[in-house]
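=== RUN LOG ===
request id: a7f3
mode: sequence -> structure
chains: 1
length: 304
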Amino acid sequence: ALAEKYVLLDNFYATGAISFDGHAWLEQGFVSDNMERANDGPRGYAWNLSDALDVSPAGFIWQHSQRPLDVRVGGVLSTLTQTDPAIQTQVDMDVHSLDWAFGWKLWKEGKWQGHFGSRAAVPALASVIDSRYPADAVELTDQIRAAVFEQEIAEADKSGHLPDLMVFGLTSDHTVGTRPNNPTPSAMVADNDLAVGRMVSAVSKSRFWPNTLILIVEDDAQNGQDHVDGHRTVCLAIGPMVKRGTVDSNFYTQLSLSRTIQDILHINPQTHLLKVSRAMNSIFTPQRDLSTYTPITPKIAFDT
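=== RESULT ===
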């Protein structure tokens, strides 16, 4: 529904191959030599850039010494935490020990609040990581993430302040294939679809909507081969200044998306790869359309 209402970019490509380098390209415009050579090596699979050898010397796409921005990051660049009842604080947890049904039960019973959260995987980002927003983990329904986001938009609506840039991760559409005692791929994709719709809806009905741009992208195109190219992936552009009912076939990559964000926020590109990337200017229109968005509830049960 979002693809049909706003802009679908159908000639858009992931710069990397998998999540490991996909996040580095999106959030840094740079991939380290260690990441290119080691991949899932002895130092571990640091998709959240928890390995210091993978962090760009130029920093992240929103960092600029002469233009400090208010940034909030949830899910990505972080590790999942869970409340320890004994000490009433968030502690690191092994996501693989998390039972999907447990998180789903908390959600259905309305007991999810404050149970899961995030801690910065990159220590220098501790001040921008959204500790209330659960870190990326397919073992947790995206409905909880959407609910946290809705709460924060409601709080911002009251205070009148929203960060300059917000970066959030959703993971249910990754699916777990046919792993026993987990939802089917169709159910998990539906879970993700509704979460995305809820988040767009929350922003579209807030005071910030007239000056907002929402860009939705995958960290990689690892969901199967494509008849055009294995790197081709999904990208949506949403907002009042975004065209309506448009399929945009201009060639863009994840670096183009990051460059677009930098141009809007008046941030000078830090890497030569970002400098030579073309911003996605073709998605915009001078006619502002303030119509809101209402999410569509999928017909499939998320615990199928």
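=== NOTES ===
The mean pLDDT is 94.
The CA atoms of residues 260 and 279 lie 5 Å apart.
=== END ===
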